[in-house]
């Protein structure tokens, strides 16, 4: 099919009004999507986006529009989506702005994910199943192997996928029957009162979640109090992760985590700069047995490779829209599988839960073959704006069955939240 149009939309939600999404580094987020629609000559559409928190969304929209000359008027080969992604990412003039990082890379993610949404619709399959039913050879061809082969070769990746091929059908059936484990950050936003934290933490346990997460990093005394209250609310058997959102230098990260550890911290997330590989490794050595989790701001597969090489993390947190979409996350899943590291994606935001569930479910069926110690983040915000919103049943993501990547926003939501002229922003 031929791509005849690429549309980019600036869509923003005023979540800063209620401090939803607030943390130590991002006190006033307005959850936003630089949203793209690919239109084809046979009437099919593909929907994708990259996530921002307000100002800067216009930069990502412009970056998406800059990809239009590479896309519009071209024939989309649904059997070569890896080639499609590589053509975008390897464009020399746009690549110069990264390379392979920042707004231009996030824009490529929006377009690549829209192409996968389109492919899922054409095949009549949700994207997790579209991927999971590919042959190992087809999956290997999705990834960009440049810069990875010193650690993981296509041949070794093929072995991992062939080993996981046994049991695919059984895991698919189990996934459809019982869903995929989730944890919730809903109780833990830094701007919430103690009373709201306790109430939402108790509700999370009642809803079947076995892990919650709290934002930390603004004030140590406040964090100790909030951690104590959360532990009292959920009891000893529920995992509590904490997330510093890059707030600290290495030394304070170690000291702060040790101060919270007596209350049973499962992992410390983004303890320092997402680019500081050796800093994360130092924190990990110092705070064990508390785990170190990071990845939502890791720019690309090369950074993932180095984090794994350096033993800098216990949990890899991929993001559906930070790296260049599905194809680069296939590489990240394979790198993690080769190192025996669990992948627990970053979600929340607007639409991130909808998008990343497909990647984790594919990982379970066709790559790692396990959901042990693996959870997808869940935040109860803004799902009503999507045509195929996530469904949580007893603390687990129900597997999507609708064709595509669950990334299409409702037309009314797009119109009302268009920035700056949509009704929500005018009022």
Class based on secondary structure composition and strand pairing = alpha/beta
Number of helices: 18
Number of beta-strand segments: 12
What is the approximate shape? globular
Task: Kindly report how far apart the N and C termini lie.
Answer: 41 Å
What's the SSE pattern?
EEEHHHHHHHHHEHEHEHEHEHEHHEEEHH
Mean pLDDT: 96
Query: Class of the domain at 168-412 in CATH?
Result: Alpha Beta
Report the portion of residues in β strands: 5-15%
**Which regions are unreliable across 5 or more consecutive residues at pLDDT < 50?**
none
Instruction: Report the CATH topology name of the domain at 168-412.
Output: TIM Barrel
Written account of the structure:
The chain has 18 helices and twelve strands. The chain has 427 residues and is α/β, with parallel strands linked by helices. It has a domain at 168-412: Alpha-Beta Barrel (TIM Barrel), CATH 3.20.20.120. The strands form two sheets. Strands 4, 5, 6, 7, 8, 9, 10, 11 and 12 form a nine-stranded mixed beta sheet that branches. A three-stranded antiparallel beta sheet has the order 1-2-3. The longest helix is centred in the N-terminal third of the chain and has 22 residues, at 102-123. The model has no long low-confidence stretch (mean pLDDT 96).
